[in-house]
Amino acid sequence: MKRREFISWVGLGWIASSLPIAIAACSSETTTPTPTSSAPSGGWQKVGTSAELDKTGQLIVNDSPVGSVLVVGKSKSENLIAVNPTCTHKGCTVAWKDEAKKFACPCHGSEFGADGKVLKGPAKKPLTTYTAKIEGDSVVVKQS
Ligand code: FES
């Protein structure tokens, strides 16, 4: 084998041995990283902590992933109440009246039940409701 042929063979061998590394390097860039988020699964969205809820028995979040949410209850409650507190009449924020167990709008007097249904107008549409629960020390909700 001549010197030139030998160098050519060595060069080809080097390229051939480097090829799997080059392919591996390229393919690792195209793989999708596995999610590392610790967000609740199954459509549940964290809106706060049980400690925040327990302070007043209410937790209002305006910029949650599902929109505005008002959660009523305590972390030990069997059934947490959760609604979008935006009044369906003209958009004021309703308040929970614990003694009457209903939501009342301060603007024009509409009232809604704990299930979001209209008890008194002028609002005609119910409040959007969510299913809420405690998961660990988090308050999580999802669309009902
Ligand atoms: S905005 Fe709530 S009753 Fe009008």
Describe this protein's structure.
The structure is a single chain. The protein has 2 helices and 10 strands, in the order αβαβββββββββ. A 6-stranded antiparallel beta sheet has the order 1-10-9-4-3-2. The model is unreliable at 18-38 (pLDDT under 50). The protein is of the alpha+beta class. It has 2 domains: 1-33; 45-143, 3-layer Sandwich (Rieske Iron-sulfur Protein). It has helices spanning 3-30, 50-56; strands at 45-49, 58-64, 67-72, 81-83, 95-97, 102-104, 111-113, 118-120, 129-135, 138-143. It is globular, with a radius of gyration of 29 Å. FE2/S2 (inorganic) cluster is lined by residues 87, 89-92, 105, 107-110, 122-123.
Short précis:
By secondary structure, this protein is of the alpha+beta class. It contains 2 helices and 10 strands, in the order αβαβββββββββ.
Top keywords for this entry?
4-stranded antiparallel β-sheet; 6-stranded antiparallel β-sheet; single chain; Rieske Iron-sulfur Protein; 2 domains; alpha+beta; binds FE2/S2 (inorganic) cluster; 144 residues
